[in-house]
Amino acid sequence: MQPPLDRLLRSALRAFAPYKPGTSVDEVRRRFGIDRPVKLSQNENPLGSSPRAMAALRELENLSAYVEDDHLALRERLAAPYGLGVESVVLGHGSNELVQLLFHAFVDPGDEVVMGKPTFSLFRKDTDVAGGHAVEVPLHDGVHDLDAMLAAVTERTKLVFVCDPNNPTGTRVERGALFAFARALPAHVLLVLDQAYREFMDADGTDGVEVLRERATTVVLRTASKIYGLAALRFGYGYGSPDIIATLNRVRLPFNVAGPAAAAVLAALDDDDFIARSIESNERGKAQLYAAFERLGVHAFPTAANFIAVATPIPAQTAYEALLERGVIVRSGDGLGLPGYLRVTVGTHAENESFLAAFASLLERWRAQPVEAAL
Ligand SMILES: Cc1ncc(COP(=O)(O)O)c(C=O)c1O
Questions:
Q1: DSSP assignment string, 71-128
Q2: Which ligand 1 atom lies nearest to the CA of residue 226?
Q3: Which of 70, 257, 309, 329 could form a disulfide bond with 41, CB atoms 3.0-4.6 angstroms apart?
Q4: Sign, Cα dihedral of 338, 339, 345, 349
Q5: pLDDT tens-digit profile of 288-346?
């Protein structure tokens, strides 16, 4: 007989809601018989993967050997642009794993973790799994309220997450405000800057490593999933002081980064052409989407990333479902702590057009007759 799960479960997990990923392409195919849905829900690179990375993968002949666990060449390559040493770089199975390692290393049950609301859902999830206490500080006009976050720090605070640019709003914090915040944070707190979308920021955006140089108790997280188009490989990396990086390395699994991922990322880092094309495409897509949002009279947060949070007068879940039926997958803000908004990845010109055409026709119908049945 199975014992009651409640008795087995750690107490921190009894009221725990699992992470809900967005609707998959396969599900839309099955449910609506749509062959090629447009997927603008996971902030992936619409141009695909770095060609240099793909070429490196094709060159692999053998996967029988374990990788060299320290990935020296790759860590050197990641450290070099900043003049840092390899001991300042940690690698992860996606930057998601690095978030988890921060909890393994630093958060005891009852410890407090300060974060924005809404922000990347994983911060809250990992806090709950660790038995920590999430202190969620509402955004101000869609941007991290750094003064309020500072005021929320106590003796029990271990980690403070600033997601810059923030998911799901796409907004970034002002550079001066971020430095002032970093300087004002008490010394016992570890500041975590999640910069998964850093490469899409304009010149005024902050490079978290500059913050790290001023405040050593800081970790900066980056990923190969977005700008290099390598989400399926699961590769993230982090910068920090050598003692913090050594601690993260102590708690991670051996061989946490797969050999093919390391080979592909090493090649992608020098794929300047793909990086430039990805940024240009994102800029063009943003202009296309913002122009349409203005025509449609809907508010959209200013994004520093590769996605936009756009307001919908139609309840977000209703709009999301109606878009799905038309073969366009976005995220409903309802599930992301941003009710009244949709989060839309900036796609190719054609993908953006498909989304805009479907969204505009929904809005038109709703404005003529605002009942769900009309959609
Ligand atoms: C803020 C933020 N951090 C991290 C990630 C995921 O990174 P990775 O694929 O490296 O685990 C995402 C992906 O959506 C994200 O939005």
A1: -HHHHHHHHGGGT--GGGEEEESSHHHHHHHHHHHH--TT-EEEEEES--HHHHHHHH
A2: 9
A3: 329
A4: negative
A5: 999 999 999 999 999 999 999 999 999 999 999 999 999 999 999 999 999 999 999 99
Q: pTM value?
A: 0.96
Residue minimizing CA distance to atom 15 of ligand 1: 196
Sign of CA dihedral 110, 114, 116, 121: negative
**From ligand 1's centre to the CA of 141, what distance in Å?**
23
Q: H or E stretch including 220?
A: strand 218-223
- How confident is the model at residue 260, as a pLDDT? 97
**For a pocket test of ligand 1, which of 44, 102, 226 has the largest count of ligand atoms closer than 8 A to its C-beta?**
226
**Distance between CA atoms of residues 80 and 270, nearest Å:** 13
Q: Is the CB of 345 under 6 A from ligand 1?
A: no
Q: What is the pLDDT of residue 370?
A: 74
In which element (H, E) is residue 340 found? none
**pLDDT at position 198, please?**
98
To 5 degrees, how large is the angle CA 79–CA 252–CA 94?
60
Residue 306 Cβ contacting ligand 1 at under 6 Å: no
Torsion sign (Cα): 27, 30, 32, 34:
positive
Task: Write the single-letter amino acid at 159.
Answer: L
Q: Are 160 and 145 in contact (CB under 8 A)?
A: no
d(CA 373, CA 369): 9
Residue ID of nearest Cα to ligand 1 atom 3? 196
| Six token digits for residue 129 | 């799994």
Q: How far apart are CA 201 and CA 336, in angstroms?
A: 22
Length of the chain in terms of residues written:
375
What's the CA-to-centroid distance between 1 and ligand 1, angstroms? 40
CA dihedral 183, 187, 188, 189 (to 10 degrees): 10
338 lines ligand 1 (CB under 6 A): no
Q: Which of 1-10, 84-93, 222-231 has the lowest mean pLDDT?
A: 1-10
Torsion over CA of 345, 348, 350 and 356, rounded to 10 degrees? Answer: 30
Choose which residue among 20, 44, 96 to substitute to test ligand 1 binding: the one with the highest number of ligand atoms within 8 A of its C-beta.
Answer: 96
